[in-house]
Amino acid sequence: DLEVPGLHVSRDRSSPNPLSPLRLTFLGSYTSTCIISNTEPSSILRLTPYLPLKMVTPAPKKTITIGTRKSKLALLQTHMVLDALKKAFPQYEYKVFSKETAGDLNTTIALRDFTTKNLWTEELEELMIDGQVDVIVHSLKDVPTTLPSSCKLGPSMPREDSRDVLVVKQGLPYKSLSEIPAGSVVGTSSIRRTAQLARKYPHLKVQDVRGNIGTRLSKLDAEDSPYTCVILAAAGLLRLDLADRITQYLDSKNSGMLYAVGQGALGIEIRKEDTHLQAMLDTIGHQDTTFSVLAERSLLRTLEGGCSAPLGVETEWIQNAQGSKQLRMRSVVVSVDGKECAQVELEADVNSAESAEAFGITVAKALVADGAGGILEVIQQNKTKESVSTAV
Q: What is the number of other CB atoms lying within 10 angstroms of the CB of residue 127?
């Protein structure tokens, strides 16, 4: 017998031939056996599969460092990933490194007024590229559709409820957006929510509200608060065990509100060359979620709107009349004043990353044909004018 790190090699002792096949067993996270045959002393060894082989090679590190933001929600989501990795790969140690990003440090500027799209991710990506962290956990809706050239997203874990929700100030009786009185103030810094509210509920006013979930709820409930309600992502409230604050779930059926690309999903980012972590993430990934968000992000990337585009989506897996599984995507682009709108609903067979990306491109082209290109062009022109006036 011969011991090699990660392998066990033994000769078939039932054969008297000194050149008889060697039995080779991989001792990685998965175990498999192959036969090495050698017909002549000088020939090259040949590996013939003896059992199906699936193996994750040992990582070069004993400890995997996961980077994230410092907020309570970010840390909770990071530990969801950590726990899944630890369960699948208990042989490694895991630690969390948290850091505030530009988006955390500046809570006064409205999100739509930032000139960069990576205000939640840049500092952490720099640490990962530098090797100080191995993987980063984001809220996927905060991740730009174009990443640094040396980084990529791994598979997504199962998605939380992706819808927006209405949260009414404590003590007020309203149960839905349709009940909110004219002139009431809705808190949100999202250009997407602002545009959809302007179209569906033009009698309501919108005012910026920034900060983490706890901060926004405190601003809402304060005695001198100007807000009657705020619009938040359901996923954050559910993960923080704040479901009791949800007044109404918002979707295409009951309010006409579509959610942000990637909302409710985790973005798990790694270095492109880290094939080991890619293989580890493959084992905890959720295919339906991964394909859904790939299609959504492909749509947004094709429109070149980035995180600040007033693009709403709603994806769901359905069975068509023939019984085949398909991905349905509803999407909408609304002008900031709510007066113009482009919307489409399409279905497609999506069974690979490539077909998911292609579906997103198809939906984007359909939106442009319905008028989205003109809406986005006006928004970009206005942002350019604002940038010039600020510079002057």
A: 17
CB atoms within 10 A of CB 387: 12
> For residues 365 and 346, what is the distance between their CA atoms, to the nearest angstrom?
11
Closest CA to 77 of 140, 124, 143, 137: 137
Residues 344-382: tens digit of each pLDDT: 999 999 999 999 999 999 999 999 999 999 999 888 887
Is 142 part of the annotated catalytic residue set? yes
Distance, in Å, from the CA atom of 100 to the CA atom of 79, rounded to the nearest integer, reads 17
Task: Say which residues have a Cβ less than 8 Å from residue 365's Cβ, sequence separation at least 6.
Answer: 302
| φ/ψ of residue 354, rounded to 5 | -65, -45
Q: Which residues contact 128 (CB under 8 A, 6 or more apart)?
A: 67, 134, 135, 136, 151, 269, 270, 271
Helix, strand, or coil here: 328? strand
Contact 363, 344 (CB under 8 A): yes
Q: Is the dihedral of CA 26, 30, 33, 39 positive or negative?
A: negative
Q: Supply 102's token pair.
A: 């530009």
Matching CATH number, 164-250, of 3.20.20.220, 3.40.190.10, 3.40.50.2000, 3.40.50.300: 3.40.190.10
Which residue out of 134, 142, 251, 274 is catalytically annotated?
142
Q: What is the pTM of this model?
A: 0.80
57-157+261-285, which class in CATH? alpha beta
* Pairing label, strands 229-233, 205-207: unpaired
3-state secondary structure of 52: coil
Q: Which token pair is 6?
A: 């990660």
Domain 164-250 in the same topology as domain 57-157+261-285 = yes
Domain topology for 286-392:
Double Stranded RNA Binding Domain (3.30.160)
The domain locations on the chain are: 2-49, 57-157+261-285, 164-250, 286-392
Give the span between the Cα atoms of 189 and 208, in whole angstroms.
5
Q: What is the pLDDT of residues 118-170, one digit of tens each?
A: 545 888 999 999 999 999 999 999 999 999 999 999 999 999 999 999 999 99
Assign 3 a pLDDT band (cuts: 50, 70, 90). very low
> Which two tokens mark 348?
């497609």
